[in-house]
Structures
1.
Amino acid sequence: NNYHPRLQFTLEVGNNRLNFLDVTLIKNNNFIMYDWYQKPTSSGRYLNYFSQHHFTHKIGVIVSLVDRVLHLSHPMYHEQNFDKIIKILIQNGYPLKLIFDTIKRRIHKKIDIYKNSNKINNNDNNSNNKIKYNYFTIPYISNMSNKIKNYFNKCDTFKLAYKGINRLDRIVKVQKDKLQTMLHSNVVYKISCGDCDATYVGQTKRTLKTRITEHRNHINWNTQQKSVITEHRLNFSHEFDWDNVEILDEEINLNKRLISEMLHIHRQKNSLNVQTDTDLLDKAYDCLFTNY
């Protein structure tokens, strides 16, 4: 600690134990044992059984804890660690029967995997004949999601996967400086005419400032093909409100962003967008605009 006043090291007496990530390494008669380690600050909070998430997510919580016991602790510590995860799961509302049934199935599956580990070559040959599925992710809403799943069960190439609606990042916000409107990227935006009620909706993955600058300067380009914004400016001598461009949506995924763009184009009252901008919008969305 004498090397530099800002470099100070601490010493922890380990008593033949060393905590490393999720494992405690234990020195025992010249052998290294290992046990599952949880920080003292661990709250024991996991996905609650009564939360609105798909049942497979809740089974996954139990399975992940069982795997931690089996993979991160020596068999000598399995019994006490299984007691620990059973108490944790009960505190999170899981039924005792479900806990024991899932633990039993997982242990049997691990045993089967171990017994069949010598049949790797046969498994590799069989894996080539397995059907490869494309997974389609939707938000999980009880009752409704199950009805949608019944339709997808008839499909041989697609399978449904579910995601939760209430995520922690929507509740707990990182206190960052608010990004200026023109510096946002991956957005669907709307430009309004300053002299009439005409509007234009577009999308871009670049910063909004870059795309709006292109719209604004397009009138000066030496080209025969004029954009709808440029034609409106030339035909009616109108000017757009470039300083108050509205962000309608933010989406990183291109396909989702294009769908969002088409939906917002459809919702405009006096749209400058050409008809082909919404040609790819499925008729199934028409019912969403009956009130507009």
2.
Amino acid sequence: MGWTRDLKAALDYLWALPEVDKSHLSLLGFSSGAAVSVYVASLDKRVSSVITCACPAEFTFLTEVDEPQSVVDHFRNIGAIRDKDFPYSVQEWLDGFRFISPIKYVAGISPTPLLLVHGSRDEVVDV
């Protein structure tokens, strides 16, 4: 998934800067970005803490639908997908969401501090 590559590249960039305090390299993510943060932090021990906001435990609300194209259409309608050629493969795109499901990786963050923030009235992602 491109997001994971981007976040890993950002960590590499920050890690290389002499002015960055490497003992305080934290990740903050919202929704899908929070899920990517959980995944990356579980693999990269340079991360000193993780804060997630509205992070789904899984993406079944996207991946387990009868009409996968409807997910893409919805994302286009709300402006989350703007590139007319994206995704190149709907199935591969949805497989990426299956792959980064935080429920599979959250235990791997320990002992790194983790703060989960989630509203009780979120209409998209259940608590």
3.
Amino acid sequence: YIDVLQAFVDGLAIARDRGHDLSAIHSVASFFVSRVDTSVDSALTTIGTAEAKELLGKAAIANAQLAWGAFLKFTQSDQWMPFAASARPQRPLWASTGVKNPDYDQAMYVTSLIGHPCVNTMPEATLLAASAVAMPDVDTMTPHLTEAQEVWTRLESLGISHSRTVEALEIAGVQQFIDAWVALLDAVEKEMASTA
């Protein structure tokens, strides 16, 4: 994620040098949320110990909170300061915040991942569930940054690697986007051929 933030700042420098209005540039960095729990919970269920069961449903929120911590640190860094007055930071976007496990509270990702200027994309069922609860008007991530690191430390002690987990999910997610793009191009090509 730090590489993504650095690439954004590098892009801002190019835009500034070319005379663009930096305040008009909007950008997000997307993080899958529920997919992290789906992957990690599967491994925890296989492990099956009491400690593993205690960690069910905690990896995704902890992962997003760690990303939030990196975002906060970056927006106070020497790399960001030259742009702070004229540009908008690249916002974290929590994607796939609908729970996949029916035993989990439908709004747990939404209520746990509140922070300005984050973006949250969710399915309608999650939106309805979140609208039915009292949403805190505060940052619900920063107070839990130490706890988030502890969750991943405990997961690592059980043999579940943070870096390998998120890398595998990133690779799979990128491949899904590639497959969808190729399918779209194929559909357009077929439609064009049928109307020619």
4.
Amino acid sequence: MTNIEIHPPQSSTERQRIVVAGLGALGTLIAWHCRFEALFTHNRQQQTEFSLQTSASASDTPPKVDTFSAPLWRGEEADWLIVTTKAAATLEILSDLKDHLKNTSRILLLQNGMGQQEEASAWLKQNRISAELWVASSTEGAYKADSGTVSYAGKGQTVAGRWQLSGDIGTAQLPPAMKLATEIKQVLHEKLAINAIINPLTAHYRCRNGELLTSSEKRSDFNALSSEVATLFNQLNWKTGFDIQQQAEKVAAATAQNQSSTFQDVLHQRRTELPYICGYLLQHARQNGLNAPLTESLYQSISALEAAW
């Protein structure tokens, strides 16, 4: 990973007023981290009671499950609105909550992909909403089992930063379990690079991450796509703190048994986030007169699948 500067969160005895919008697996995990703050939620199910299985060890019998509650947000003053929905739902959520945002100091987008940040920034400006826009990236793991139980799959790190740097951001108290990154766009680019390789390929082959490295056909496509993404990043002058192909191999091996979010979406015939991963890359490639044929082919193939659902 990159050696960008990361600062620990400031300590404070005052409880923050935090709203979590979107209570999928990651949203539930973020809400759990924030459960000792003045926590509110916004979710379509109107859910106010939540649980998280916090023990990953099979020796824990029964598994440790934390339960917590949070009222629905009715527009109370908020220090943070944390949006954990799919990228494509960002403007829909902000529009739904538009009347509440005048009482909101900061909006933080914690999602896969890129492009929605620019869309949200433009939307806030157009609607004359003064809340600061922040973005975050997380290596924390959580998944929702078939039973509906959310499990904490692996501890990681969540870093956040101001989307448009201006003024003093050092005075902002971050939500729990988050650290401040001064080069957040580079962090997002680094995650985008890995997602642009693993996500479309696992969806195309309908395989777990590690399987991309275990057969000659998959490995050949993995190497070719890694090379294409690395070349494109270099041409666009998007910096990463690692060799893209080596890091993609490392991530695929370390998460060998995981199903990427895009693979899961395809399995369940849900709209994928590839427009904000592959689509974002292709948009910037076209704007700069560049080609990315493998990315284009995978993106079009999976988009055709989605259109048939």
